[in-house]
Write a structure and sequence with these properties.
- Helices cover about 35% and strands about 5% of the residues.
- The protein has about 200 residues and is mostly helical.
- The chain has one domain.
- Strands 1-2 form a two-stranded antiparallel ribbon.
- A hairpin with a 2-residue loop joins β1 and β2 (about 10-15).
- The longest helix has 15 residues, at about 105-120.
Length: about 200
């Protein structure tokens, strides 16, 4: 079993991660300076109006979780490598860390309190879906992760580790975007592969 370790308030927190593939920044993404690659900008939940993407019930910071603390995509989206749907992380996944991590400032503490309250009340958080395909399209995440390797998530979702609020980077509803990717990688374009 691998472990993911990160610093929270001067304390090292280590989490066991079984079978998680490494998802790192793709080589095509420009390298950031040491200053902006380790610390996410300070933002409060009220600051989300100016950010791209839908406002969520909890201001979940991907730039902090995946960027600053370098938690791999599949730690939270653990079903992506084995199923067609990556899934939204369960409350248990969130609480695995947030039982002990309360936040470093009043803004993050307020957002983490929302997660804790939902978990304690047995109520899941209802997130706004960002990436959704038409019902007649079959997109097996597992197959794409296996084929694309370490850059799989970035290929479709963009550099999520730098997004304070996740938004749609590519037009995944445009079949031409998918076909272009298949052409570049010399992958089948048989209609029945994706439409059945």
């Amino acid at each position: 079993m691998r472990k993911v370790a990160f610093f929270v308030g001067g304390t090292v927190v280590a989490l066991g991660v079984a079978g998680v593939a490494a998802f790192r920044k793709p080589p095509s993404v420009p390298q950031a300076s040491a200053a902006d690659s380790t610390t996410a900008p300070r933002l409060e939940a009220g600051d989300t109006a100016g950010l791209p993407g839908p406002r969520q019930p909890v201001f979940f910071r991907h730039d902090i979780h995946a960027g600053q603390y370098k938690i791999e995509c599949q730690y939270c989206h653990y079903t992506a490598a084995v199923s067609s749907e990556p899934g939204i992380p369960s409350m248990q996944t969130c609480m695995g860390c947030h039982l002990v991590i309360a936040g470093s400032d009043s803004g993050s503490r307020a957002e983490i309190k929302k997660v804790r309250d939902a978990a304690n009340g047995g109520q899941p958080i209802v997130w706004q879906r960002i990436h959704a395909l038409a019902r007649h399209v079959h997109f097996p995440h597992a197959r794409h992760i296996q084929a694309l390797g370490p850059t799989a998530c970035f290929t479709c979702h963009g550099d999520v580790q730098r997004m304070p609020q996740v938004y749609k980077v590519n037009n995944i509803q445009n079949m031409g975007w998918c076909i272009t990717c298949h052409l570049q990688r010399n992958v089948t374009r048989d209609c029945s592969v994706c439409h059945y």
